[in-house]
Amino acid sequence: LMDCTIQAFPDEYHLHxxxxxxxxxxxxxxxxxxxxxxxxxLMDRLSEFVSxxxxxxxxxxxxxxxxxxxxxxxxxxxxxxLQIELAKLLELQVAFLKFASQCYPGNIDYILSSCCTLCxxxxxxxxxxxSQKNIVSLLTLPLESLSITVLSxxxxxxxxxxxxxxxxxxxxxxxxxxVANSSINLKDLQIVNQLIDFLTPILRDDPEGQDSDPAEFAxxxxxxxxIVHLAVHNDANEYYNMLNRFREVFFQGGEKRxxxxxxxxxxxxxxxxDFVHSSQTSNSEDHYDPSTAPVNYKITSYKFKPFRGELTxxxxxxxxxxxxxxxxxxxxxxxxxxxxxxxxxxxxxxxxSGQELDEFTYDICTDILxxxxxxxxxxxxxxxxxxxxxxAFQRLTCLSEDNFDTLASxxxxxSAKLLKKSDQCxxxxxxxxxxxxxxxxxxxxxxxxxxxxxxxAEVVNSSQLTNRNIGxxxxxxxxxxxxxxxxxxxxxxxxxxxxxxxIIKDKSAGLTSQPDAKWLETYFNNTLEIIEYxxxxxxxxxxxxx
Length: 546
Hints:
Blueprint: H1 2-8, H2 11-16, H3 18-27, H4 35-52, H5 56-62, H6 65-80, H7 86-103, H8 108-120, H9 129-146, H10 156-160, H11 165-182, H12 189-203, H13 214-228, H14 236-251, H15 255-281, H16 315-330, H17 334-351, H18 358-375, H19 379-393, H20 401-415, H21 421-431, E1 436-437, E2 440-441, H22 443-463, H23 467-484, H24 494-508, H25 517-537, H26 539-544
Antiparallel strand pairs: 1-2
Helix pairs in contact: 1-4, 3-6, 4-7, 6-7, 7-8, 7-9, 9-11, 11-12, 11-13, 12-14, 13-15, 14-15, 15-16, 15-17, 16-17, 17-18, 17-19, 18-19, 18-20, 19-20, 19-21, 20-21, 21-22, 21-23, 22-23, 23-24, 23-25
């Protein structure tokens, strides 16, 4: 009958008669009536109504709903605590917490404290699966309204201790998800330490040795990685300490986790390096926006205020830590480590003046080539890696001439050792940029590369004449165009381009009906249009074809 009353009458009616209704349930019902269930259904209904009402503050001002429920729930617990199973009492508290989360988030800690008291008075056997399920709900529900501020709730960690590892892991996953999705920055080292304590079940292996589901494991570690990017601070020293705390924990978390967490931490350090450099080199007091950073670690929209204090570390220290991180990652994720090392050398190149870290940077570049040589076996992965290496190395200005020459030569040699000669041709063609870039201006080495690629293209087409293979000559022709328009490069003449054009025309004449004919025709014609355009617009081209 009471349940019918709750379901049949409107919400406004329940609000105006709530005190009488609760008193009736608490004092006048027969002993065998499940008052707890009536309370739960009433709270569920009112929480939905109040949370969706635009007049929630007016309602709360007229009726102190929380105090009414609290008084009567406390009475039930005091009078019937020993007669009711712990799981049932916790179920009542779950409903109360759900209601409070929607309408009275400031009172959540009181409910958690009450739950801790309940659990402390029962034996461990009574904290069964059903009770643990309710405790998980009690710890999860506040996340919806409080997010990261649950870390400051006094009784939150106390209640978590009543859960076994697997259930604590569920709560940790929910906390990680709430914090990551909130995008609220972790404001200091204390918050980071509190969060790490709560996340420990997903930062360590199960002490019972149970393996996680691979998809679940990847999901939770991705959340941890996202959280790292929320650790930012206008005080560079505090920022540095926060990242170091994460590093300490991640090193203890095992190799599998480091695949997800180390890259995030690595880019966190690079972001810190860019912030420090910006603070040191700019006289402006405007906020620094990392979205303008020159390399690929544009992670957060957080705007830093320039730091003018005394640093307890330096850029070299940051880069040393970054290298240490990548050395731990290299054995398990070589391709990823290669890519991250390239980001590291580009950061050094952008932020460190001159050649202060010449040998340090050269050692990292040597590590990159070593990883390429010994750890990457797949042919396509080798091509991708060489492309990334060449693109990064040609931007470097922080190396001595001898060190850069060694790197450029080694990269070209590795390009010449690719499995397919067509791939060798394209890779060496890209290496021409290594010999004519900010760090080196050697026209003879460029022309040596051109001789190699022309020879390779001829060998490939002699072996199998196809439109794709003829396309090698079009790629060479485009690279001729690139160097011809360089002001300080005079080793290429217009005749070189026209000779290449004639080779393409002769070899493609009988292949118009073969596969990729349309692709080659479009590629070649677009290149010819570029040549004609530059003849009319670029004086150097005019003179070359005069």
